[in-house]
Write a structure and sequence with these properties.
heterodimer; A: 168 residues; alpha+beta; 2 domains; three-stranded antiparallel β-sheet; two-stranded antiparallel ribbon; 57% helix; B: 470 residues; 12 helices; elongated; disordered N terminus
Chain lengths: 168, 470
């Protein structure tokens, strides 16, 4: 096998691996790449986690699943037969000005992207805080109801008002 | 125990050999040998025991053979341990090739009582202990041996020792080591067997993995499969499975392999992916023994040797960047692309480059930012010293709400069990609403991000089209 054939084979294997990998984000502090047995399983996992709320012990977890992409693998092999061109652009070249613009654009775009992500994180935090409060209140409410039922207050009240209590 | 039903069948290939002690009060007749499938087994022989769903057979030594009043035949087997069975207790001791460990001490896993039908065949085990009581084996015997042992494994305190105790399981250890009588038998056997060109497998189907004995002729082993299967069937019903499970027998073989093979990982940077012949002269030996990338990056960042490259093609690989760095700056460096995860804009690729010195890193940054290094697809490179600044998450577990314990939780668990959903959810709970809020928020931002990236891509294309050379 020549080296280019080998590279092609390695790349094909890698692409196959990517196709059956799922990217999990918002996994507490980290994100993870999960390799499944085949592409079908990976797709099923993604669709299930996207279409249904993901819960653990009855609590929602903000975990997101996306199909993995080649760019998510730091140790990816280079695509076969690709040669990246490199050249220095002379300052007198008209391209130099355009390139400068492109550089600025890249910086701007990255800044925009980071700002959006930051905003999202803030919103997420707000939501989490809000939900925690709601949950606490609800929990208190349920506890109160439960204690009233348990110490017999409800049945006494029911008797007092002549109402029939039906727990179902 | 249906195999016992075969007892009266004259065709059942089992015959008692020389009689031993008779315990009249217990109605137990001991024997010194028996024949099973034309193979005669003596006391203290090493044998294979086969259990289904186990690809490697167990190895043990016959300590006692007896028949009970109910005509049940029994053998008492003292176990040998394969290194992978006790890998958790090996510590820094490296097992030798073909080495197994004799069980010793008192406790679970020392021996088991099995029906003789569980025996799958004889096993050539040689003791190489330097113990005085041990008859030292000849080189030929060593070559012929399938396994060797010179150490014991104490089943009570899980220790390995190369000192043979006086007694194991109530049996004088001299019977368990190589015996003179045994040796003669072995010698004559091996002499004949070499001349008769491997007739051994025919007599007893070998259940070892083939690697131990590559000389097994495939054809001959095929001819015996019939009888082998029969024997395995008998073995299935035996209680071999009782054997020493408590000792963490099922330790992974890989683990052992790992220990055996502590070769340093050579990173892919010196592989032939880069066809540049000139580079091979500059093989950097510092790359062979690596700390983890994270450690390296942190150390290099403190020394100001890390350069962040931006505006790369998102699909570019570390190797390609290394190649570019070498072609343009004649610099040997370590490169790793930054994985596209939460904080990365997927229109732009980014990478960390670690240079050997701070000066070199600064030189490169100055050259790239002052001039214009254009890569394919109209991507002028941007660089900066230091690492990416990503917004720190305020709290480690945003959105991971506490689950309340106590009665409330117990009830909830029951509710969940009742409809049997583990990670799914029921729309009639308040947690479901919480989850929906998360989905909404996430979808909103996913969409925003998509729109942003699309508009960014348009902008980039617009400017790129102004380039003369694309």
């Amino acid at each position: 096998m020549t080296s280019s054939e080998e590279a092609r084979k390695t790349y094909a294997e890698f692409e196959e691996k990517v196709s059956r990998t799922v990217f999990l984000d918002n996994l507490s502090t980290q994100s993870a790449l999960v390799e499944m047995e085949n592409e079908k399983q990976a797709r099923a996992l993604i669709s299930e986690m996207t279409n249904y709320p993901f819960m653990m012990s009855g609590m929602p977890r903000p975990v997101r699943a996306k199909p993995a992409k080649i760019e998510m693998f730091a140790d990816r092999p280079p695509p076969p037969d690709r040669k990246i061109q490199v050249r220095w652009v002379d300052p007198s070249d008209p391209d130099f000005v355009v390139a400068k613009k492109l550089k600025q654009l890249c910086k701007k775009h990255n800044a925009e992207h980071l700002a959006l992500i930051k905003h999202q994180l803030e919103e997420e935090e707000k939501l989490a805080k809000h939900q925690e409060e709601t949950l606490k209140t609800n929990y208190k409410k349920f506890e109160m109801i439960e204690s009233i039922v348990q110490d017999g207050t409800t049945s006494r009240l029911a008797r007092h008002y002549g109402v029939r209590l039906d727990y179902d | 125990m249906s195999h016992l039903g075969n007892r009266d069948n004259p065709d059942f290939p089992f015959h008692w050999g020389e009689k031993g002690e008779l315990l009249e009060d217990k109605y137990v007749q001991f024997y010194k040998s028996f024949t099973y499938y034309d193979e005669e087994y003596f006391l203290y022989d090493s044998v294979y025991l086969y259990e289904t769903c186990q690809d490697t057979p167990y190895i043990g030594k016959i300590l006692e053979i007896w028949e009970q009043q109910s005509h049940e035949r029994k053998v008492k087997i003292l176990w040998f341990f394969r290194p992978n069975e006790i890998v958790n207790y090996l510590g820094d001791q490296v097992p030798m090739e073909r080495e197994i460990f004799l069980a010793s001490g008192n406790g679970l896993g020392l021996y088991n009582v099995n029906p003789p039908e569980a025996i799958a065949g004889k096993c050539r085990v040689i003791c190489t202990s330097k113990d005085q009581r041990n008859q030292q084996p000849s080189t030929q015997e060593l070559e012929n041996a399938e396994f060797i042992f010179f150490r014991t494994f104490d089943v009570a305190n899980f220790t390995i020792s190369d000192v043979m105790p006086d007694k194991i399981c109530g049996v004088n250890v001299k019977y368990l080591l190589n015996q003179k009588k045994d040796q003669k038998a072995f010698l004559t056997k091996s002499k004949t067997s070499t001349s008769v060109a491997e007739d051994r497998p025919q007599k007893k189907p070998r259940l070892t993995d083939k690697s131990t004995d590559p000389s097994i002729n495939l054809l001959t082993s095929k001819t015996v499969t019939g009888s082998r299967e029969l024997r395995i069937e008998c073995g299935e019903e035996s209680d071999v499975a009782l054997k020493k499970l408590e000792l963490g027998k099922r330790a992974k073989y890989d683990e052992l392999q790992l220990r055996k093979d502590p070769n340093p990982v050579r990173k892919g940077t010196v592989t032939d992916h880069t066809s540049d012949a000139s580079r091979s002269q500059f093989l950097d030996r510092s790359k062979w023994f690596q700390h983890s990338w994270k450690e390296q990056l942190e150390a290099a960042n403190q020394g100001g040797r890390v350069v962040l490259l931006n505006n790369l093609d998102p699909s570019i690989t570390s190797l390609e960047i290394e190649d570019i760095m070498y072609r343009v700056f004649q610099q040997q460096c370590r490169v790793k692309v930054i994985q596209q995860a939460t904080f990365q804009n997927h229109n732009y690729g980014q990478a960390y480059v670690i240079f050997k010195t701070k000066d070199k890193a600064e030189q490169v940054v100055k050259a790239i930012n002052g001039g214009c290094l254009m890569l394919s697809q109209g991507r002028p490179l941007i660089s900066s010293i230091g690492m990416l600044k990503i917004p720190a998450k305020a709290s480690a577990l945003v959105g991971h709400l506490p689950t309340y314990r106590g009665r409330f939780q117990v009830q909830r668990v029951e509710m969940i069990c009742a409809v049997s959903t583990s990670h799914g959810s029921q729309p009639n709970t308040m947690e479901y609403n919480l989850a929906l809020e998360w989905l909404l928020l996430q979808d909103k931002y996913l969409l925003t991000q998509k729109l942003l990236h699309e508009s960014q891509l348009k902008e980039r294309r617009y400017f790129r089209n102004h380039l003369k050379s694309k």
